[in-house]
Amino acid sequence: MMPLAFGNKRSKYRVVKLPDSHLLKALGLRKGTEFTLESKHPFKGPVVVKVGCRCIAIDYDVARDILVEEV
Amino acid sequence: MKCHSSHTNKRNISDGKIKILLMGNPNVGKSVIFSKLTGVHVNSSNYAGTTVDYTIGDVSFGRQRGVMIDVPGVYSLDAISEAEKVAVNLLKEGADVIVCVLDATHLERNLDLAFQLKEYDIPIVYSLNLVDVAKRQGINIDVEKLSQELGAPVIPTIAIKNKGLMEILRAAMKLAEEECVPGSKLTDEERWDKIRDIVAKVQTRVQKKKVTFIEVLEDKTIQPWPGIPLALLVLAISLGVVVGGGKALRAVVLLPLVKDIIQPALTNLVSLVVPEGVFRNLLVGDYGILVIGIEWPLALILPYVFLFYVVFSFLEDSGYMPRIAVLADGVLRRMGIHGGNIIPLMLGYGCAVPAILGSRVANSYKERIIVAALVSFAIPCASQSAAFFALLGDRSIPALVFVYLLSILVGLAVGTIVNRIVPGKSQPMLLEVPNLLWPDKDAFKKKIKLRMKNFLIDAEGPMMIGIVVASVIAETGILNEFSKLIEPLVEGWLGLPKEASLSLLLGIIRRELAVLPLLELDLNMLQLVVGSVIALFYLPCLSVFGVLTKEFSLKVSLLIVVATTTTAFLFGGVINQVGRLILGAM
Predict the structure, then answer these.
(1) Least CA distance to A43: which residue of chain B?
(2) Alpha helix locations (H) across B203-223?
(3) How many other CB atoms sit within 10 Å of the CB of residue A19?
(4) How far apart are CA B547 and CA A44, in angstroms?
C-alpha cells in the first residue's frame, strides 16, 4: 500500500483509501476502483490516471492522500 | 419513476411550448446535440447569482414547439459546485421532459447522474451517445436491456453524425405529455451497487486489436514529454494563425475595402452635404467619426478577434484545452492557482470580460482574484493585440516579442505577489481529461457566432463612444489643452510627442484605443516600445472595470487600476530613460 503520488507510470492500481471528496466520487474514483497511472508531471504537477476509458488529472497533494495497492 | 399519459395541461412555459432540459456529464457531446436540435435563435444567459451560463434554443418537431435548455454539464446533483446548484435549480423550476445524455464509453459514471435524475417527477429519455467511439474501443451495450433497467427509452446516438437525434426529439415530445411519479431516493452506496449490477448485465467488452492514431495522440499529449513541446508548438501555430491570418485578412480584404471604397464614398458624400469647417472635420477629418469609426473596429480589430475565437473554440471543442491545463498545473500552482485556470487566462487573450466571469465555476475567492489580476494586468486582449500587431508588426518583430515577453514576466510576478498577499486557500486540481475529437461543424459555428455577437455588443459600443470622444477632442482643440497639462509626464518622463496624450485619454475607455492613436504619429523605435509598454499595462478598459466592481468590489477594481497605471508609467519611463542612455552612449 502506498500513496498514489509515488506510483509508477503504466502500472495498475486499486484504490484502498481516499479522502472524502465529492468530486473524486463524482469522477468515478471510489474505494475499490481499479485504474492505470497514465502520467506524472514535473514541479509537483498532477497525476493522471485512466479509469475505464477516461483520464482524470489529480492534484499532487490529493494524490498523496490517496492510498493505493498494485494490481 | 413511473409515467402515464395525462390529459391535464402541464406545460411549464406559458406560451404552450414544451420545456426540455438537456442534461448530462461534462464532455459527453451535450452541446453538439443541442446545436443540432435547436434552430438559429440561440441565446446564452447567466444564471442569476452565479457565474454559470446556460444556453436556450427553440426546437420543433412536426407541429409541436418547444424550448431546449442546455443545462451545465455536471457529474452529480449534490448541489456543491455552482454548476450543480444551477442544474438542481433548473430541475426544481420544473420541465416537461429531460433528455439525459449518457457517454457509452463511460456508462458506469454516467449512470450515476441518470439515477439521480429519476428522483424528480419529470419523464426522461436517454441518449446513449458516442456509441461509435465505444464500439471502436470494444465496448458493446445492450440498449434494450438498459432501457428496461432504467424504465425509460434509451436511444443510441452519434450526435456528431446526426444519428438518432430525430428519434430523441420524437421520444421527448411524446414523453412530455406524460406524468411521472418520482423514483425512490437511494443512498450513494445503494445507487452505486445498483449501477454496478446494471453495467455487469448490459455491457460486454472485447479486447480490441489495434491502437488507433488518435489514441496514441491522446496518450502523447498528456505526458510531460513530448506533451509540453507539443503544446508549445500548438500555441505557436495558433498565434501564427491569428497574427498571420488576421494580417492577411486585413491587407487583402478589409483595408482596401475600407480605404478605397467606404472612406472615399463617405468623404464625398459628407463633403456634398456638410460645409467645410469643424463639423465636417468631426465627421470625415483625420480623426473623423466616420473615418476611424469604421477603420479601427472593422479593419484593425475584427479580423484578429474573429480568428482568436476560431482558434480558441477549436482548442476547446477538440478536447485539447484540458491537456494544456494538466501540463500547466506545475507552473500555475506557484502562483496559487491550479492548472484549470489556464483556460480563463487564455480566454483573456480574447477579452478580459468573459475571462473574469468564467474564471472557473468552482474556484475560491482567492483564485478568482489572482486570475482577475493576471488578466487585468498582463494579458493583452485580442483588440489590444490587434493594435500592437498593427503598430509594431510592420516595424519591428523583436519589439513585438519584447512587449509580449515583458507581459509574461510581469504576469508571473503579479501572480506570485497576489498569491502572497491575498489570504485564503486554493483548490486542488481535479479534472477530467476528455478524449480528443474533431470538433462538430454546427456546434463550432454556433459557438463562434455567439462569441462574436457578444463581442460586438460588449466592445463596439464603448469603442464607438471612444472614437466620438477622440474626434471631438482632437478636432476641436481640447486635446492641445490637455496635452499641455500632462506635458511633463508625456514628453519629459516618457519621451513621447505631446499628441500621445490622446492615447492616455482614450485608453481609459478601451484598451486598444491606448495604442491606435500612436499609429497616426511618426514615432521612432524607442517611442514605439515605450508607447506599447504603457498601453500594455495601462488601465483595464471601462467594461473590465465594471466587471471587476461587480464580481469583487469597488475597492478591488480601484486597487487594480492604481496598480496597473503605476506599473505602466514606471515601466514606460524606465525603458525610455534607460533606452536613451544606451542610445546616447552609442
Answers:
(1) B330
(2) 213-220
(3) 10
(4) 34
Instruction: Determine which of B214, B220, B222 to mutate to test the interface with A (most A C-beta atoms within 10 Å).
Output: B222
* Lookup: cell for B293: 469609426
CA distance A16 to A69: 7
Strand pairing class (B97-103; B64-70): unpaired
Q: Determine contact, residues B536/B403, Cβ cutoff 8 Å.
A: yes
Q: Model-level pTM greater than 0.90? A: no
pLDDT tens per residue across span B289-317: 888 778 878 887 888 889 999 999 999 88
Specify the pLDDT at position B9. Answer: 46
Query: Which domains are seen in chain B, by residue range?
Result: 2-209 (3.40.50.300), 224-424+460-585 (no CATH)
Report chain A residues touching chain B, CB-CB < 8 A.
21-28, 30, 38-46, 48, 51-59, 61-62
**CB proximity list for B499: less than 8 A, separation 6 or greater:** B479, B483, B517, B521
The Cβ of residue B353 has, within 10 Å, a number of other Cβ atoms equal to 23
What pairs with residue B140 in β-bridges? B204
Please enumerate in sequence order all residues whose Cβ is within 8 A of that of B426, keeping only pairs 6 or more positions apart, or say none: B333, B336, B337, B338, B364, B366, B367
Chain A residues in contact with B112 (beta carbon < 8 A): 26, 28
| Rounded-to-integer distance, Cα B494 and Cα B504, Å | 12
Q: How far apart are CA B541 and CA B92, in angstroms?
A: 39
pLDDT higher than 80, residue A30: yes
Cell of B249: 485578412
The helix (run of H) or strand (run of E) holding residue A67 is: strand A67-70
Unique residue bearing C-alpha cell 486554493? B426
Other CB atoms closer than 10 Å to residue A3's CB: what's the count? 14
Query: Each residue of B472-488: pLDDT tens digit?
Result: 877 777 877 888 888 88
Superfamily of the domain at A2-70 = Ferrous iron transport protein A (FeoA) (2.30.30.90)
Looking at the complex, report in whole angstroms how far the Cα of residue B117 sits from the nearest Cα belonging to chain A. 14
> Residues A8-22: what's their mean pLDDT?
91
C-alpha cell at B383: 483588440
Domain coordinates in residue numbering, chain A: 2-70
Q: What is the structure's pLDDT at B179? A: 78
Q: What is the pLDDT of residue B543?
A: 80
Among A36, A37, A44, A55, most B C-beta atoms within 10 A, so best to mutate, is A55
